[in-house]
Amino acid sequence: MAATAIPEIQPGIVQTTEDKPKSGLEPGYLVICWNDPVNFMDYVTHVFQAVFGWPRKKAEFHMLQVHEQGQSVLTRESMEKAEHYVHQLQKYSLHATMERDE
Amino acid sequence: MKLIQATRSRLVFHLGQRENRLLRQVLKLYPRVPSAHQKLSKSSRLPDAEANQRLLDEALAERRAENKKHLQALLADPRRFAHTETGGRLSLSPAEVEWVLQVLNDIRVGSWIILGSPDEKRPELNERMAPDFAAMETAGYFEVQLLEALRGET
């Protein structure tokens, strides 16, 4: 097992390693694609490329997540944008929804 | 179904006699996914959930109506979908390929829903289910051909 490096703290420099608190982010909505046994893997990849403009590798990564884990969070957006993406994905008859990011 | 010409603005396919007949028959089944089948969210915690669901239903209904109109025009246009001596010739722009894919997948998914949304195991077929199963598989066959053409595999 690799050793964990001990960070060197210099005087006078305030280190902030915590993530930005959630309350500081704009309220967001997750666009999620769910697995189903009817849509072809190639078709799902194609739709992700067409809707999000993603390169094939990224589209395939999310398609495989849907296939293997049952779902994939495709993006986190404002309500309007999330709605737009869900509309687009459903026009292709994919099982996609938007869920509030808690 | 064989891709015989591919340019930036057009994909041209040759279809055999049976493919030509099958594609025309299956496209006429559109739309198959029941209206109001698709849900905007799995939870009911979205603001204005009902109004937003209504918006989705309307957008999808509008898209189906547009696709249906495009489809009828395609089926009646011998420059884009022609009968030939050896079968048929289908000529599509990239934008047309996208809506034909949407149409075919609607037929595939809609047929699957009619079949009772079976899991990956093939359902036991009977006389009543056979036409829907055939529609699902036929739409899938043409989807795969179009996707392969888009990837330059044929």
If you had to describe this structure to a student in words, what would you say it looks like?
- Chain A is built from 3 helices and 3 strands; from the N terminus they run βααβαβ.
- Chain A has helices at residues 41-52, 56-69, 79-91; strands at residues 29-34, 71-77, 96-100.
- Chain A has a 3-stranded antiparallel β-sheet with strand order 2-1-3.
- In chain A, α1 (41-52) crosses α2 (56-69).
- The model of chain A is unreliable at 1-23 (pLDDT under 50).
- By secondary structure, chain B is an alpha+beta fold.
- Chain B has one domain (2-39, 49-153).
- Chain B has a 4-stranded antiparallel β-sheet with strand order 1-2-4-3.
- In chain B, α1 crosses α4 and α2 crosses α3 (94-114).
- Chain B is globular and about 55 Å long.
- The model of chain B has no long low-confidence stretch (mean pLDDT 92).
- Chains A and B meet through α1, α3 and β3 of A and α2, α3 and α4 of B.
